[in-house]
# Entry
Amino acid sequence: MDISRFRIESTREKLWFIRNKPKETFWFLRNRPKRILFDHLPKCAGSEINNYVKTHLFPHMVFHTSQVTEKNHELFKSFPQKKRYRFRFVTGHFADELIEYIHPKTLTATVFREPVDRLISHYYYVKRTEIHYLYKKVTENNLSLLEYISSDLSDELRNWYTTHFTGLSIEEAEKNPEKSVELAFQKIVSRYDLVGFQDDLIAFIENLRKMARLRNPYATTNENKTEKRPKLDDISEAVRLKIADINFLDISLYQKLKEHFKSS
# Structure
């Protein structure tokens, strides 16, 4: 794979920032914030966190996996070690697959959202986002929230936290619930230096700021916020219970994580 164009673009960006952003360049060279890998779980405030971290870095220092998972992940893995280690911020969906390829002193982080609320947000986000891979299936079939959650349109809709972190299929995970949740829990607490929760995002970002030596105070931008979605309490109890029932592993895992990090 030809990586020469990335080297050229990186050099041009460096020169532009030295000439046009001398104060920012001086601050970065003097403080050298820590490298960060952020595993962006869908609909868990990832865009907000990405924007915050990027305010401290130059574009050539950021590698984003985006939605084209296989292509971008393989691209990163194909880079020589020296180039991989130059990135100060590796972020995106399934970024955890790159942990073995990043600089060993990289700070690893992720954020969780209450599973029922996450899936409600997921549904309304898909309905308003034409480029989303599920948009046509939802809109053309006029799927309700309950129909969407009950469908098998995507692995993201059924115990996705648990399957994502264990690598198990949904059938394997649900066959032995306690073992699956414990396996996911152990992988999370051993893999990430910092774990946060969307309902306390300010605390997470403040911890990230201190641990990574980031300068700028956090100011919310509500980036990628799902608009025109009902509040959790406005969703019928029957639908909320159904979502929780389908995602019983993720509910258990989320509660276990909250309890663990509350006491740690």
In short: The longest strand covers residues 107-112.
